[in-house]
Amino acid sequence: MRLHLLRETLQLCSSQGKRRTVEGVRAELTSLLDMIEEIDWTAIIKTLQPIKAHIDDMLVPFAQCAVMYAQLLEVVPAHALDFLVLAWHHDHCSYQSRAKQKCYHQSEREAWLACAEGLLDKEFARLKTLVFEKLDSIIRASSLVEMVTALLRPSLHSCKGQISQEALNLMMFYHNHRRYKSGKRKGKAPIELLTGEALEADWVELLTLQRHLHLTG
To answer: How many Å apart are CA 77 and CA 64, to the nearest integer?
Structure first.
């Protein structure tokens, strides 16, 4: 349940279609991390420390979204823009969902697109493309939440034994540097989306090189 809430909190829009604000996400995220910390298990507490230290980084997409929304309001009527943002949100979620949920998000996307088209008429195609491209250009919060939930899931689902710091570092490296195999981000790694710089090799080769440099350094 906590991981579900965490994933929901780090989406650009809420399940009700409201755009999330930097202040709201910070408050929700801090509260959720405090709840997780109450489990009071060493491995979880160690994992939370770097996550809490990078909360500002995790909020960057929401600040970008606010700026982008203000810019789009200059060319797209407010109600139509809200419909298009909702359509984009469900389109984005459909790539992360399976079967029944995927169908739900696709249906919602088409419904909100129809609402926007009714308001925009001949300008619909152009403005829909503009809004989707602008929102796609934002560093995705989902890349960050995938990293966070991947780090926390083993601890939350199995509190037997211990997870070493070395293992956590390896997990973080993998989830930052592995390239997506499908969806809009196919061929890109989270670290590439974050920095805008392409990786020179696969994550295994990068890890091997890093280990070699560590041993010879």
So the answer is: 20
